[in-house]
Amino acid sequence: MSYTPPAVWDYETVKSQNGGKFGGTNRPTAGATHQQILPKGSQPYQLYSLNTPNGIKVNILLEELKALGKISGFDAYKIDIMKGEQFGSDFVAINPNSKIPALVDMTTTPATPVFESGAILLYLANKHQSFIPQNMSKHTQMLSWLMWQMGSAPFVGGGFGHFYAYAPFPQEYPINRYAMETKRQLDVLNQHLAQHTYMVGDEYTIADMAIYPWYGRLCLGQLYVSDTYDAARFLAVHEYTHIIRWAEMLAERGTIQKAQTLVLQAIA
């Protein structure tokens, strides 16, 4: 199928052609589409999220902090992105980018909203001085790998995952392009973990928590798998033995098991 881009892209012209899993929710503008009142519980942290890889990152840290006794708990609410709940007025007030997860710290006056999963991890780790190295060299390594994940995951989720699993129909060029980049990233990670127990030497940090829900779960066969597609097989993840070793180690943690199956309350 050939395609010649127009001189100026126009949403009104193409919106009827949008298809795939997210075709009906995406739009080229920001801001709220409807009024919304988000529920608030009694816990110090209010989480508005979904159990996607980006959402699970924050679930893990909250469960780890709870297990350590650093926080009493948190209230977790589901933002159903297929229903457009991320475009509600209260959620947009917390996160103007309309993406999950978003967090509100109720212990400050006024309450502190935090958006972007990496920012939430850094905020909580710094506030509670947990899972964040104090040694400057290790701290810098942790930041480097955290930023690597934040910058790389869109190629895996928005690129490979979208065209492999969610697009209206298979397209050879984008699938090949993003499969190649995803395998390159997996090789970067595999080579690093061949020399390190965790992302930062022998210290479990928020870098592991950020990377595991994407690359760890992918190599454990938990991402982009259905009756019709299987990303782990397609990408031959059995080649990445060091990632698998690391992922299986993390998957044994009770906190991570809870995080992956966290019950999120409906907002309405």
Describe this protein's structure.
Pfam families: Arc1p_N_like, GST_N. InterPro entries: Arc1-like_N, Glutathione-S-Trfase_C-like, Glutathione-S-Trfase_C_sf, Glutathione_S-Trfase, Glutathione_S-Trfase_N, Thioredoxin-like_sf. This is Glutathione-dependent disulfide-bond oxidoreductase. The protein is an alpha/beta fold. The chain contains 10 helices and 5 strands, in the order αβαβαββαααααααβ. The chain has a 5-stranded mixed beta sheet, with helices on one face. α2 packs across α7, α6 crosses α9 and α7 packs across α9. The longest helix has 31 residues.
Helices and strands in order, then pairings?
Elements: H1 11-14, E1 45-49, H2 53-68, E2 74-78, H3 89-94, E3 102-105, E4 112-115, H4 117-128, H5 136-166, H6 172-193, H7 206-219, H8 231-234, H9 241-251, H10 254-260, E5 265-266
Helix pairs in contact: 2-4, 2-7, 2-10, 5-6, 5-7, 6-9, 7-9
Please outline what is shown here.
With 268 residues, this protein is α/β, with parallel strands linked by helices.
Structural class: alpha/beta
- Spell the H/E element sequence: HEHEHEEHHHHHHHE
Shape: globular
Catalogue the unreliable spans.
none
- Percent helix, as a range, is 40-55%
Summarize model confidence as the mean pLDDT. Answer: 96
N/C terminus separation:
43 Å
Largest sheet geometry? 5 strands, mixed
Strand order of the largest sheet: 4-3-1-2-5
**What is the number of strand segments?**
5
Number of contiguous helices: 10
- Report strand %: 5-15%
GO cellular component, one term: protein-containing complex
Protein name: Glutathione-dependent disulfide-bond oxidoreductase
Organism: Pelistega suis
